[in-house]
Amino acid sequence: MTCSMVDIMIPLSLQMRFSILILCVLLVLCPLFGQTQLVSDNFYPAPMEFKELSSILEEKNVKDPEQLAALEHGALLLETGLRQYTRRSYTLAGAGTLSIEVLTVPDARGAYSLLTIFSDTPPQPGPPGDFYTAGSGSILSIAGNRFVRVRAAAGDLARRVALSVTNRIGSRRPNPPALIKHFPKDSCDPSTVRYFLASGALRSFGTPVAGTALAVPPDVEVAQARCASAGRNGTMTLLGFPTIVLAEEYFNTGAIFPRDPSGGSDVYTRQTGPMVAILEGNFEPDSADKTLGSITFQYSVKWIYDRASQSRTLWGVPVQLLGTVVRSLVFVALLCLGSIAAGIGLAAGRIYYRKRFGIPESSEFIRLKINED
User: Which residues, given as ranges, of the chain have pLDDT below 50?
Assistant: First the structure.
């Protein structure tokens, strides 16, 4: 007995067309289940976005700690957690220059601290950015964990450029640090608020207490503002500690500042929760007590229900085990339904495709003719 292959017929054109059809469907559906996001550190204006910007004069991008330390206030910025410094300056079409600086720090608190340190006016909710301050020919703003400074002397160009840069960074809901919100609104001037996260910034830009710089340990937030009440004035300092225990320890031991001030002004203190408030000035005791008494801390207790500690059974079987079995059965059922639906759809598509292009039914199969002797 001998076998010989007479002919083999394979509809290659049909297979190729069907493969191309499936590929097109996948290309259409893939964007629905995935998203591609391009991340860039270039937040500068696009070319020709502002006609006043003639050409790029200088550009700088610094990440090395040694180079960051060489910047203006470099040691202070590093202590705040500066990670990257970028700067670009432009020549203006008429005359003058414009510079854009973007400083990246670990979080929004650090950016807010830089805004209050380098500003002479109180921060305002954006745009541009989350918060901003406007000065003579300059705009300072923050967007997330980035501090943006735009300097220009031409009209409102600085504001428009700052708006463009912060929009590229992406603004968030304005939310100042919680410590700032504890200043008494009726007696403290918001334009004098300074917020510090590092001791170096506090020594350089902060107001001494009782003639001495505050000895603040790491991880302590400090905010200062000028206050006035009943014809008396002074400085209020708020310290936010990580825990209530640390606040009580520093308040009771007097490790923050000397207890016997020699500067001729009175010092009043109050500890509430994880905060310590210090009021220095020519306040009367009653006025000082009223001002400090308005600073409160509300405790919150959250009850956590530990479901893992509760052993529940149903028909003698743990509920968690039954839940796993039920979820597995549902998952298998969904897979079966999906497979059936996919098969029906594929069959319907092939029938439609055959009728649409007039392809005979026999061309869908491989036909072998084998002669047996």
Answer: 1-15, 30-39
Does residue 16 lie within any of the structural domains? no
In 3D space, the residue among 139, 63, 134 whose CA is nearest the CA of residue 98 turns out to be 139
Residues 156 and 171: beta-carbon distance below 8 Å: no
Q: Dig out the tokens for 293 from the structure.
A: 């008494």
Cβ(163)–Cβ(128) below 8 Å: yes
Q: Are 260 and 233 in contact (CB under 8 A)?
A: no
Give the CB-side neighbour count of residue 186, counting CA atoms within 13 A: 9
Assess whether 182 and 128 both reside in one domain. no
Which residue type does 319 have?
V
Query: For residues 165 and 154, what is the distance between their CA atoms, to the nearest angstrom?
Result: 17
DSSP H or E run through 338:
helix 319-357
Given phi > 0 = left and psi -120 to 50 = alpha, else beta, which region is 24? Answer: alpha
Tens of pLDDT along 159-180? 888 888 888 888 666 788 888 8
Alpha helices (H) in 206-318, listed in sequence order: 244-253, 285-293
How much is the pTM? Answer: 0.65
Q: 137, exposed or middle or buried, with CB in 10 Å at 0-12, 13-18, 19+? A: middle
State the total domains in the chain: 2
Closest by CA position to 200, among listed 120, 114, 279, 261: 114
Q: Judge contact between 279 and 291, C-beta under 8 A.
A: yes
C-alpha 30: how far from chain center: 28
Q: Are residues 221 and 263 in the same domain?
A: yes
Judged by DSSP in three states, 134 sits in strand
340's enclosing H/E stretch is: helix 319-357
